[in-house]
Specification:
Structural class: alpha/beta
Largest sheet: 4 strands, mixed
Number of strands: 8
Strand order of the largest sheet: 1-4-3-2
Distance between the termini: 33 Å
Helix content: 10-25%
Number of helices: 3
């Protein structure tokens, strides 16, 4: 196909995967998990009181490009969100954190709502990462010693709805 790259026209050649969204019950608990346990950097909050929801955007910052993000304008923060790959959006519907009848969101791994599986992050040393997760009291869905796949672990976020897939970078598949 002339003018196409794997079926993608020139107008889509710069297409990138920007972000994925997870719904959370309590943003304080979830933000602490994604920042302090997984090491993501907070980029921006978008609060919509009229619609009763807030969005929180996070990403890994291996190149230190987010070091001064707090000093940026809202427009610069938004440009940072839409201009990079691998952003995590946490969506909080106001009031869920204190609603005793709130039953959580579908995890995607069980009924109802089966479909979504996990988000994936990589680590340099799976054993060290899992040891750290254990010390922090993180719940495991699967430890490396469980089952036949020894090079992965699934940990649960505070809502139990997102499984984090961790594997060693140097592992042969």
């Amino acid at each position: 196909m002339a003018g196409c790259y794997y079926g993608i026209t020139d107008s889509l050649r710069t297409t990138q995967f920007n972000h994925t969204m997870l719904r959370v019950k309590d943003p304080k608990v979830s933000l602490q998990f994604y920042q302090d346990v997984l090491g993501m950097k907070f980029i921006r909050e978008v609060r919509n009181d009229a619609a009763k929801f807030s969005l929180y955007f996070l990403a890994f910052d291996h190149d230190n490009s987010l070091n001064d993000i707090e000093s940026k304008s809202d427009t610069e923060k938004w440009n940072t969100v839409i201009g990079r790959e691998g952003v995590l959006e946490l969506t909080w519907n106001h009031g869920t954190e204190s609603d005793p009848d709130f039953r959580g969101y579908a995890s995607g791994n069980s009924e109802p709502g089966k479909g979504f599986g996990h988000i994936a992050v990589t680590v340099d040393d799976l054993e060290k990462a899992c040891g750290r997760f254990e010390k922090l009291g993180v719940k495991f869905q699967k430890k490396p010693s469980d089952g036949k796949m020894r090079n992965i672990a699934f940990i649960l976020d505070p809502d139990g709805c997102a499984e984090i897939f961790s594997f060693q970078l140097d592992h042969e598949s």
